[in-house]
Every structure is written in C-alpha cells, then in structure tokens.
Amino acid sequence: MPTVQDWRISIRLLSAVPPMAKPNKKGPIRTVDVRCSACQAPLFVYRKGGKGALVKCFRERISKDFTTDGCTCPGCDRTFARETLIRGTPAYKIIGGKVTFR
Ligand SMILES: [Zn+2]
C-alpha cells in the first residue's frame, strides 16, 4: 500500500506536467476564423500558434480555405495577402489591417 507521502509525491509529479504537453506534429491545434476586415467574409480556418497579431499564414496550417487563390477575398475581391516563402515554406503574408480573426 502506498503511503500518504507517496500519493503526495505522485500528485506533485502529475501536476508538474502541463495538460497539453505534446503538441500535434502538424502544429498548434487551436484554430481561428480569419475573416475579411471589410466585408466579414470567411477567408481561412487557420491553426494559429501563439498569441498576437496574424501577420503570416503558413499554407500547411490552413485547415479550410474559402478563397480561390489564397490572397483575394471571395466577398469583395480585395487583396488581403501576398504569397511568400518563409524559410522555404509557402505562406501568405497578411497585409496589415485587412483581416480580422478570433
Ligand atoms: Zn471582403
């Protein structure tokens, strides 16, 4: 039978491990809805890592793409991003203020 002391130690060990210790290999799991800031049309569902502004979208992290070319809003035809490569990975660079996300 484990003693009370043993239980305390194992509880401490368990609580030291963060609940989501192993992130998915493909990147963050949390997704955000990216929308056009002008007409609110949905643009992407994106697996975003970290906090802060959305400045770039890696193509491999876009789980749903509502656009036809990745750079133009399907609602109002406004260009909201430019294709780019970030360390060899295809990505879209978001033009400041053109999208909102949550
Ligand atoms: Zn739009």
Describe the fold and architecture:
- With 102 residues, the chain is mainly β.
- It contains one helix and seven strands.
- It has one domain.
- Helix content is 13%, strand content 33%.
- The strands form two sheets. It has a four-stranded antiparallel sheet, with no helix packed on it.
- A hairpin with a 2-residue loop joins strand 5 and strand 6.
- The longest helix has 13 residues.
- It is elongated.
- Bound molecules: zinc ion.
- Zinc ion (ZN) binds next to loops.
- Gross morphology is elongated
How far is the first residue's CA from the last residue's CA? Answer: 50 Å
Number of domains: 1
Number of helices: 1
Question: Which segments are poorly predicted (pLDDT under 50) over 5 or more consecutive residues?
Answer: none
The strand count comes to 7
Query: How is the quaternary structure best described?
Result: single chain
- Helix % is 10-25%
Bound small molecules, by name, code or SMILES, are: zinc ion
Q: Tell me, rounded to a whole number, the average pLDDT.
A: 86
Major sheet description: 4 strands, antiparallel
Structural class: mainly beta
Helix-strand string: HEEEEEEE
Strand order of the largest sheet: 4-2-1-7
Radius of gyration (CA) equals 20 Å
**In what range is the share of β-strand residues?**
25-35%
